[in-house]
């Protein structure tokens, strides 16, 4: 019993560590003190970025300190003025701290200057994205816990910091509708947002955009309301309707300022197939990707190690991808709001070209006392506001992040694992309706998606709990999966890859491992993460676990027609296939009676 308790505690601690510590949270910026030194300096160049319309630029930062040490570091701040004048006092009798805004990124002063400790001179190449404000660079001594501000640089800014940036496509509520969501620094009183779009090479039209934003009072706790707060600007969404199936469209983001226009670059996408259309359809699914920094800053290589690799592989294979599902734990901002811009910039080459659909995870939604099913602090005080505002999903209510969407021969039922999904709840009724309402003759491939593992997982943390998945989940949901003959259920949250046999009530319903023909008789469960720090498997051998991989990766589903589906697991490191299976069947195989999925019959003739 004592040993079991120890294992449980270790697993819980590892679950926390495997999700990693947001690097920005290591910096106690509110404890910073002033130690400006006239002999120290920080210089950044160039001072104006984006002169040719770029939204990403590299900056050279040079610095010197008369008293260098190994724990000196450079912080990047935006807005450039990060002094106490920007800090809200808790009450009139309490002065705010010297600094109250976390940097948007940081790096040790000796990162690329090994002689910094000796000569006090160093330089860094840092990548900046257009984030609606200017930047400054600060040299700190005395480490992260009690930092001392030694020197501050000149200001650097983009030529137009308010420019429309980082479009993200998503399917609308109708199959022939595509939504485009982007951010800018223009409020609706200053400029009218719209999208100029039309068939490639054809007539272009304008569609207006709705505009949302939020303030500090909209989020639920620290650090999102305190040192992690950063003005999100304005989030615009335009609805492009009555699209012709499979046609290629071009589009540009626009803002009309009185008699002038501000434009983004031109992008393009292919309209979705209609529900049931028989054509080649390719879907990529993953969870827990997070973000990374191309310049090595923020030590994200120890936090979301596989993120950039996964992003690069998807960009490399983009011509063979039709739609993407990122099922929770999106960027692990954990209350540091600047990181959401960093993430949308990272995925822009993907999300601007194919629909990028989300599910909600614990690091987007969970916060005590806010209605999340799990009472923890994983969202860093965001309580869903960032994900719900910055990304469109075709949900009836984005605060309840469950929805269905059709893509040709696929029906996807996306659950919100951070809200109650047990039998009798509002979400349970949605799940059943989503599964029950699909016409399997036209859409034979039925896929269930959620962030947490509501099915089966051999992740160590689940194993020591004895549940091998979220407690209570299988007991409440497996009868639905079986009744409506869900083909595949895919999850994130467990930071490893695992595939089960077709399974029902802990029993494999088919002994085949690679090629399933005819009636499936159970649901195949898959868990995996694209970039966040890995978590171990239990050493226990579960009979239903067919394939495990302690690595980062993503899923690709390819529907060739109504009868043939290919499943592939690809590693983020090289994009190669490391696990796969095929399903071949006819419509009558879906109709066939299996355990707990037999319709009632009558003896009457």
Automatic annotation (TrEMBL):
Signal peptide positions on this chain: 1-18
Cellular location(s): Secreted
Pfam families: fn3_PAP, Metallophos, Metallophos_C, Pur_ac_phosph_N
This protein's GO CC annotations: extracellular region
This protein's UniProt keywords: Glycoprotein, Hydrolase, Iron, Secreted, Signal, Zinc
Top-level lineage group: Eukaryota
Domain Purple acid phosphatase Fn3-like positions: 42-160
Sequence similarity: Belongs to the metallophosphoesterase superfamily. Purple acid phosphatase family.
Oligomer status and interactors: Homodimer.
Protein name: Purple acid phosphatase
Native organism taxonomy: Eukaryota, Viridiplantae, Streptophyta, Embryophyta, Tracheophyta
């Amino acid at each position: 019993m004592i040993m079991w308790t120890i294992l449980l505690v270790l697993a819980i601690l590892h679950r926390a560590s495997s999700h990693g510590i947001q690097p920005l949270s290591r910096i106690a910026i509110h404890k910073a003190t002033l130690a400006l030194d006239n002999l120290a300096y920080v210089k950044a160049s160039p001072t104006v970025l984006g002169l040719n319309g770029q939204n990403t630029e590299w900056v050279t930062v040079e610095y010197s300190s008369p008293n260098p040490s190994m724990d000196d570091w450079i912080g990047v701040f935006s807005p450039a003025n990060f002094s106490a004048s920007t800090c809200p006092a808790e009450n009139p009798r309490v002065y705010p701290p010297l600094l109250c805004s976390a940097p948007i990124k940081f790096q040790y002063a000796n990162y690329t200057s090994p002689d910094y400790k000796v000569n006090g001179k160093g330089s860094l190449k840092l990548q900046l994205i257009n984030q609606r404000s200017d930047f400054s660079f600060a040299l700190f001594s005395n480490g992260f816990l009690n930092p001392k501000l030694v020197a501050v640089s000149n200001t650097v800014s983009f030529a137009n910091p308010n420019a429309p940036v980082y479009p993200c496509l998503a399917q609308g509520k109708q199959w022939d509708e595509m939504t485009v969501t982007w951010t800018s620094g223009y409020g609706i009183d200053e400029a009218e947002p719209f999208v100029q779009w039309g068939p490639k090479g054809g007539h272009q039209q304008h569609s207006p955009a709705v505009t949302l934003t939020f303030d500090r009072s909209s989020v639920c706790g620290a650090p999102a309301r305190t040192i992690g707060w950063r003005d999100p600007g304005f989030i615009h969404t335009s609805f492009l309707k009555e699209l012709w199936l499979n046609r290629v469209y071009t589009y540009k983001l626009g803002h009309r300022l009185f008699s002038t226009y501000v434009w983004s670059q031109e992008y393009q996408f292919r309209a979705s197939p209609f529900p049931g259309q028989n054509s080649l359809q390719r879907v990529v699914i993953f969870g827990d990707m997070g973000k990374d920094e191309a310049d090595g800053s923020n030590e994200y290589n120890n936090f979301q190690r596989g993120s950039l690799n996964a992003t690069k592989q998807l960009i490399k294979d983009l011509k063979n991808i039709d739609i993407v599902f990122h099922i929770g734990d999106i960027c692990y901002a954990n209350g540091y709001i600047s990181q959401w811009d960093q993430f949308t910039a990272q995925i822009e080459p993907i999300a601007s070209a194919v629909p990028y659909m989300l599910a909600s995870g614990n690091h987007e939604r969970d916060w005590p006392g806010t209605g999340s099913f799990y009472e923890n602090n994983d969202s860093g005080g965001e309580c869903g506001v960032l994900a719900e505002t910055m990304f469109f999903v075709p949900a009836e209510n984005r605060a309840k992040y469950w929805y269905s969407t059709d893509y040709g021969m696929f029906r996807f039922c996306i659950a919100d694992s951070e809200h109650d999904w047990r039998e009798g709840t509002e979400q349970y009724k949605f799940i059943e309706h989503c599964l029950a309402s699909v016409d399997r003759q036209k859409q034979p491939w039925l896929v269930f998606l959620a962030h947490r593992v509501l099915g089966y997982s051999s992740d160590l943390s689940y194993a020591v709990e004895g549940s091998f998945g979220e407690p209570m989940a299988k007991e409440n949901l497996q009868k639905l999966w079986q009744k409506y003959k869900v083909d595949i259920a895919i999850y994130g949250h467990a930071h490893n890859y695992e595939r089960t046999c077709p399974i029902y009530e802990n029993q494999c319903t088919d002994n085949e491992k690679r090629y399933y023909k005819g009636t499936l008789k159970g649901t195949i469960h898959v868990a995996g993460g694209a970039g966040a720090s890995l978590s171990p498997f239990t050493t226990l051998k579960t009979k239903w676990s067919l394939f495990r991989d302690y690595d980062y990766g993503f899923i690709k589903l390819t529907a060739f027609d109504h009868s043939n589906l290919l499943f592939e697991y690809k590693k983020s490191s090289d994009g190669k296939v490391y696990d796969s299976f095929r399903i071949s069947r006819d419509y009558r195989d879906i109709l066939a009676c299996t355990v707990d999925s037999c319709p009632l019959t009558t003896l009457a003739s």
